[in-house]
Structure formats: C-alpha cells, structure tokens
Amino acid sequence: MKLYVLPICLGLLASCGGRDKSSESQIANVTIKELNAPESYNKVRLAASLEGDSSKAIDFVKEAEGNSNLEGDLELTAAIPVGRYQLELEYFRKEANSDVQRLIYSSGACSAQVRSAQNDNFFDLKAGSQDVEITVCDSDETPLATVVVEPSYYTGKGIIFSEVFDRGLGKFSNQTTPAESKIKWGKTDSRGTNFGRVWSKDAGDSVAWLLSDPIDLSEIDEPKLSFDYGVRFGADEVPEGTLSLKVSYNYDADNPQNATWHEIPLGTLPEKPSGATSYSDLASVTDADLSSFSGAADKSKVRLAFVFTQTEGFGWRVANISIKDPAAAESAD
Fold first, then answer.
1. Please, which domain of life does this record's source organism belong to (predicted)?
2. Model pLDDT for residues 206-260, shown as the tens digit of each residue
C-alpha cells in the first residue's frame, strides 16, 4: 500500500505574557493535511492525553455537515498546556441516511509492534521545533500513513491576550441594554470548538455586548486581533448593524453605550447555509489592526466588544480570540 506523508502543524501559543508557562493553558492550532486514503471520511479526531493526568485530555475534532466528506486541509483549535502527551489520530465515516459513525482508520488500530516503535505514541510537546511521527492503520492493522506533527512555540509576549471559552466566558463578560433583557451572551460548544454565543428568537430593541477584561496595549506598537465566528441566520440576508466588533479606550464598566467605540470591519459575512443548519461555516478575521484608532488617550485599558443588536432569528458565535504582538512573535521564532 502506498505511503502518504501528512504534515500536521501544531503551534503552541502562550495565552498570556508574564505567567508561569508550565501551568498556563496554551492555544494549540492544528492543521491536518488531507488524507489520500481508499475510503472517504467525514470526521477526524486528534486526541491528546497528558501523561499521568487523564483529566487533561484534549480532543481536536473536525466533522463535516450532514453526510458530506471532509476535503482539503483541516484547521482545529483547543487550549492545551505544554507537556508529554499520548496522541491518537482517528478517521470516521458516517454512511448516508445513518447517524452511526464507523471508525475506518486510526493510530490505535496499529499493532503493538508498530506502537512500541513510537513509544506507544507518547511524545513531548514543548518549546522549540521538532518532528513527531504517528502511524495510522486500517482495521486490519495495515499501516496506511505516517503523520508528521511539527510543533512551534511562541513566547508569552507573542500572544498578549487570548480566549478559547474552555471555562465559560473566561476573560469576557456579558452586558445587555436594557439590563433586564433576556438576550445574553453565553458559552456553548459545537464539533469540538468552544464559543461565546448569542441569538434571539424574536425581534426587539435589546443590545447584547460581549465585553473583554481590560487589555494593556500601551507597550505594543502594532497589536493584531484574530478570531473565528459563525452567523446564525433568520432571513436570507443579515440586516445592517446586527453584528459588530468594537474597541474602546474609555469604557468604565458602566453602560457600554456611554463609552467611545471604534468599529472594526468584519469584511464579507458568511453566506446563509443550505438545509436545516442554522449557523454558517466559520469565517475568520485575521490580524485586524488595533493600533490606528485616533484619539486614543489610554491604551492600557483597551476593551473589545462583540455586539449583537436584537434581530429576529439571528445571532452569532465567536471563538479562538487572540491579540498578538508581531514583533515579539518574530523575535521568538
């Protein structure tokens, strides 16, 4: 059987500068290259279990909508500390008109001899550059492919703020105007990704703000913001003003509508999905510039706000939020 080499790039990014990186959860971004295998697949799971602490198990999961197949490179994100892990890679197939998922390829299907050659799939994920090889086999224990994991690590100064919503809203909080409104941001998860989410069944006049803790950008020349988001659709088009991303330098934890806000363009919004699915595919805002807002008197208490203006049937969810200092990230490579 032909051997395919699949590079997986695993970037361990420190979530906050100045903290003890041995205990701090890091953001792990994983790219899995397309698997050229005899049978198509529609779900991939990369499990990472910290040696000696099963409670630190992390699942990176990517699943196709409905009965469609996964094609091309896959992007996954989770929070994970640096350490020694047992890694397992699994590919699943869900047949048409069935909810049953069949495991078709995995590292766990490999023989004891193959696994012992890789120290039973235990690898050190740590600072620096390294190659980690994982063998994937079919149900007959036949080796199908060698997967190469290439971790890279950035210092805490590279990522100066991050939130992956693995513990509620984390570094964000909900504030709604009027205060008695039931339209609120909360934490949810879907297909292995955690989100901050808000939506409304009905029309109304409420505005829900997902507000960050204060972020100190005073020593950063060109801070860059990145995040993923999906749109929940009511009608075919998103009404103007329903979704917005804003930055303030003078919010004082009172009414957010009393602060001065600068809007960051979201770009082209995702299209409404077909069928019964409510949410669009995830879109990404990458390296949005936070340095060019005029009139900024104090950059030591910057606030981000993901804002939802109540609109019937609509909503949005956000994930994998990070602000980086490009200069520090480059110096750490």
1. Bacteria
2. 999 999 998 888 878 888 898 989 888 888 788 888 899 999 988 877 789 889 8
Q: Tell me if 43 sits within 8 A of 186, measured CB to CB.
A: no
Rg over CA atoms, the chain: 21
The amino acid at residue 271 is: E
SS3 at position 56 = helix
How confident is the model at residue 9, as a pLDDT? 36
Distance (Å, whole) CA 16 – CA 130: 23
Please state, in angstroms and as integers, the Cα–Cα distance from residue 53 to each residue in 46, 50, 241, 275, following that order: 17, 6, 46, 42
Residue 9 three-state SS: strand
Determine the Cα–Cα distance for residues 141 and 169; give it in Å rounded to an integer: 43
> How many angstroms separate the CA atoms of 94 and 91, rounded?
10
Q: Are 302 and 249 in contact (CB under 8 A)?
A: yes
Q: Is the peptide bond before 178 cis (omega within 30 degrees of 0)?
A: yes
**164 token code pair:** 């992956």
**Phi/psi at 29 (nearest 5 deg)?**
-100, 125
How far apart CA 103 and CA 317 sit, in angstroms, is 30
Report how far residue 226's alpha carbon sits from residue 304's, in angstroms, rounded to the nearest whole number.
12
At 201, which amino acid appears? K
Rounded distance between C-alpha atoms, residue 318 and residue 284, angstroms? 10
- Kind of pairing, strands 143-154 and 4-14? parallel
List the helix and strand counts (H, then E) for the chain: 2, 21
Closest CA to 198 of 311, 308, 321, 320: 308
Whether the predicted model's global pTM rises above the 0.90 cut: no
CA atoms of 27 and 196, how far apart (whole Å): 16
